[in-house]
Amino acid sequence: MTTTAPGAATASELLSVVASRELAARRAVFAGIGLPTLAAELARLTVAPDIEVVYESGVCGAHPSHLPETIADAVLITGAEAVIPMPTLFGCVLQGGRIDVGFLGAAQIDRRGNLNTSVIGDWDSPTVRLPGSGGGVEVMANAREVFVVMRRHHPRSFPDELDFCTTPGPDRALAEGIRPLGAGVTRVITELGIMARAGVGGELRLVAVQPGVTVEQVRAATGWDLRVADTVGRVPPPTEDELRLLREDVDPGRVYLR
Hints:
This protein is α/β, with parallel strands linked by helices. It has helices at 11-21, 35-45, 86-94, 136-142, 170-175, 215-220, 240-250; strands spanning 28-30, 52-54, 59-60, 82-83, 101-104, 108-109, 115-116, 119-121, 126-129, 145-149, 185-189, 193-196, 205-209, 227-234. The longest helix has 11 residues, at 11-21. Residues 1-6 have low confidence and may be disordered.
């Protein structure tokens, strides 16, 4: 984990800023509560002013006056472009291929972009039992691409083999005879760097490192033999304007910024 000097970006701020930049030129985003919401709202104020944010509760084109605390927060409804039933959301919006980017989180992710949000350890006697899929399987299968933001970059979070596969990516689904619409995970953003994957048949590889981080540090924190791009970029640190917008306009109450 990288350290920050007083007044510099926290890990949450760094992840939010980097994720927001990745939303440039995207139109419709399926966002979860937390860092995805921060990233989407910051993108609206910077690189993607016309972005449409969709929430699992059925809210489309949300324009909240302040950050929601849950996907059912009433603040999401006021000013929204539409509120539709969840079957319509999943059946027409997601399965209709209308989502450019789906944001997902995970406890574990592997080299092919499969996700674990169910258990850490053995299924029958786990060390930690987690919430499960929610709408993750539908988002993975139907969004054109998926971004994953991971708060911790550690071999346990990036294992060679998942403890349990909650949300299979396209490659795993294809092996079971299922043809997903989307490319699966194409971006993984962590406090150490950015991994990218081209889609079906691809493997995550390191394409950029965060400020002050080396390629060797990222590889040591990954549980498989991480591939590295021929040219590894360096992520520009958050600008003063990006941090000001996050702190003063997006999340002044520090609902999600820590």
